[in-house]
Each structure stands twice: as C-alpha cells, then as structure tokens.
Design brief:
The protein is elongated and about 60 Å long. 73% of the residues lie in helices and 0% in strands. The longest helix has 29 residues. With 217 residues, it is mainly alpha-helical. 27% of the residues are buried. The protein is built from 10 helices and no strands.
C-alpha cells in the first residue's frame, strides 16, 4: 500500500503551466477564427497550427482530434475560462435563480446571456450549421440546447413559484419564450445580420423579456 506521507508527488512547474495556458489560448484564438470563417468541416488542423504559430505535433498532443479541439474551444468560450464547472452550476447562474426581484433576475439573465453569446455565439452557430453532416456536432448542438433550456426552465420555475409570471403564463411556456428570444439564432440575426450594437441588443432583450414574462406591477 503506498505511503501517503512519503510518496513523491509529481512536480508541476508554474512557468510551464503558464506557457501551456498561453499556447492553448493562441490555439483557441486561431481555431475560433477558422471555425467561424470556414465552418467545422472546412477547417483543417494544420491550418489551426499554422495560424496559432505552433507545430502540428504540439497541436495534436493537446487535442488529438478536431472534435476535441472544437469542444475545448467552444467550452471555454461559453464558460469564459478553463475552470471545469458547467455554466448551470456556476455561482452567478445559481444567484440569478435565487434573485428575489423578478426584474433584476431578468436583467441579470440578459447580462449573462449577452456576454456568453458575444464570446461563443458564432461558435454555437457553427455546431448548428454542421449538425446535419457530423454526428459529433449534432451531439454538441443537442447537449448545448438541452443545458440552455434547463437553465431557462429553472429560472422560469423560480419566477412562477414567486407569483412573478404574468397571468396565464406557466413555467414551461415562459422557459420556451426565454429559449427562443435569448437564443444564439436571434443573437446572430440581430447582432451579425442586422448590425445591432451589443448595448441595443441587451436593452431590447431585457425589455421584451420583462414584457413577455412578468406580471405588471
């Protein structure tokens, strides 16, 4: 049985860890640009390596497949960091669900959604566009949609329990409304296709969700 006191622990160099994190960041930046511009199927790993300024072996050591690279890039974009905590379980998400003021809860949801879509919306749409041709992307799109709807349903249920939803609106329909209006598809239409500013999109989403979901004062 190993001695837990005297057993040697692997040495982890802070400088090496920092260098690896910097390399991953360069790879993510390159991958994001190429996936967004060329799509999933049109992006080659060697192109990512060249744009990131790393060798192909370095890239494959970190991400053995294109699916692994895309999954990492999308996951960090969604979360905003490399911490292994899913968005639904993050303190900021749980705090929104527990927010006692319904309008503040909606406002905080809009802020979180807008920031997430600004970081990850284009990549999320890559999964949607490639889902019909690639099973990995189909699985990614389905998992992302399910997780997103779960967050919306949890908030809608909390609002319903507080009696904050407008008359005749149940939690399921409220969650569906959130799911549609705060979707990456709507963000893509307004921000990318119609050229709305981030502030204009944020203000519109907050206004329409309060109107559609909450009981009048």
């Amino acid at each position: 049985m190993p001695d837990p006191v005297n057993q040697k622990r692997p040495y982890r160099s802070p400088k090496r860890a920092e260098a690896a994190a910097t390399t991953r960041a360069r790879i993510r930046e390159a991958a994001t640009g190429l996936f967004t511009e060329k799509g999933y199927t049109g992006t080659r790993m060697k192109e990512v390596a060249a744009l990131a300024g790393v060798g192909e072996r370095t890239l494959y050591d970190a991400f053995p497949t294109k699916a692994a690279l895309f999954g990492h890039t999308l996951g960090v974009a969604i979360a905003g960091d490399e911490e292994p905590v899913a968005v639904p379980e993050r303190p900021e998400t749980l705090a929104i669900r527990d927010e006692p003021d319904p309008e503040r809860a909606i406002g905080r949801t809009v802020d979180q959604t807008t920031d997430l879509l600004e970081r990850a919306g284009d990549l999320i749409m890559v999964t949607v566009e490639a889902a019909g041709a690639d099973p990995d992307m189909r699985a990614s799109a389905d998992a992302g949609a399910e997780a997103t709807y779960g967050v919306h349903l949890a908030l809608a249920t909390a609002l319903e329990e507080r009696g904050a939803l407008r008359p005749g609106l149940d939690a399921g329909t409220a969650a569906d409304t959130l799911y549609a209006l705060a979707s990456p598809h709507m963000h893509q239409l307004l921000r990318r296709h119609r050229g709305w500013t981030q502030d204009a999109y944020r203000a519109w989403l907050r206004r329409v969700l309060i109107t559609e979901l909450l009981a009048p004062h």
